[in-house]
Specification:
- By secondary structure, the protein is mainly beta.
- The protein is about 5% helix and about 45% strand.
- The strands form 6 sheets. It has an 8-stranded mixed sheet with strand order 1-14-15-18-25-20-23-2, with no helix packed on it.
- The protein is globular.
Length: about 325
């Protein structure tokens, strides 16, 4: 897994041990992601399917894209499509993806890079592998997280953040058995590069076999863990494996532990940890539009059909 790493975890700053009075977050729910296809046919797992939107707030959904080894001619992306009212966060663990939009934004992201797109008032957008990758084939793996925008930011001007892997804050657990990549928000006082409208944190953690990660987490945030690969436990021993999500309750820190032995193809436990301060506003979500009311969603479709989201570049 080529997302950014270091040869010696012991050189990194360590997250603090839980202190006296710190409360562990209990595990409320574990779900298994259904598998399907998105865009032109690339495989996805719907990471948060089956979780109440009230427990997800401020997030809407998350897809694990791949992990898939494409043969030459097989790599696929999405056609041009609109978005309004939220942000897409695309984190590429392995492979290459090109982004382009109707406002001139976009770029190429690869191993460990993140592209944070604020759709805001609306744009047209495409995600696809570069032509050379289509010709050659190769491994592709990543996630896309949808982050809701509060009512007063839904019609803000679209913008991009290109977050390169070298900008990510790197930490380790107190036993130096886990690599913690802070992409956005802050963990134990260490901030990632992503700028967010809604207070939140996004982390990719890799645990060595048998390692335990007690991760300090903002008490005002909800907390979800999704298993990218491997198997272990969350909380006080609830088992989880590839493609499963755990919803945590309130507390000061959350716990993830890797089983002592892992599969040969996934020698470590990799998880996405995400959480944020709930917006607690009405949610009207239909397809590519995430608004507060049904009338606003219908207006978004109308604006899209009238060409108000811009035009596909020549």
């Amino acid at each position: 897994m080529p997302a950014i790493t270091v040869p010696d975890l012991a050189v990194l700053d360590r997250v603090r041990r839980p202190g006296l009075g710190d409360q562990p977050r209990p595990v409320w729910q574990v779900t298994t992601a259904p598998q399907g296809y998105e865009g032109e046919g690339f495989p996805v797992r719907r990471a948060f399917a089956g979780i109440d939107l009230a427990h997800l707030d401020p997030f809407v959904m998350m897809d694990q894209m791949g992990e898939v080894e494409y043969a030459p001619g097989e790599p696929k992306g999405t056609p041009w499509h609109p978005h309004r009212g939220f942000e897409t966060v695309t984190y590429i663990i392995d492979g290459v993806f090109d982004h382009q939009d109707s406002h001139g934004g976009g770029g190429t992201i690869t191993n460990g890079d993140t592209q944070w797109m604020t759709a805001g008032s609306g744009l047209l957008h495409i995600e696809a592998p570069p032509e050379w990758l289509v010709d050659k084939g190769g491994l592709f793996h990543g996630i896309q997280l949808w982050v809701n925008l509060p009512r007063d930011a839904k019609m803000n001007a679209p913008k991009y953040q290109d977050l390169r892997s070298g900008e990510v804050a790197l930490l380790t657990s107190y036993d130096a058995g886990s690599l913690v990549r802070v992409i956005a928000g802050s963990v134990d006082g260490h901030a990632g590069p992503g700028s967010t409208y809604t207070p939140m944190s996004l982390v990719h953690a890799t645990l060595e076999p048998g390692a335990r990660l007690d991760l300090p987490w903002d008490v005002d945030f909800n907390a979800l863990v999704y298993v990218l690969n491997g198997h272990g436990t969350v909380g006080d021993g609830t088992p989880v494996h590839t493609g499963q999500s755990a919803v945590f309750g309130a507390g000061d820190y959350l716990t993830v532990t890797a089983d002592g032995s892992q599969e040969s193809r996934s020698p470590k436990l990799d998880v996405i940890v995400v959480g944020g301060r709930p917006i607690r506003e009405p949610l009207a979500w239909a397809g590519p539009f995430v608004m507060n009311t049904k009338a606003e969603v219908l207006k978004a479709y109308e604006d899209f059909q009238r060409g108000h989201f811009g035009h596909i570049p020549a």
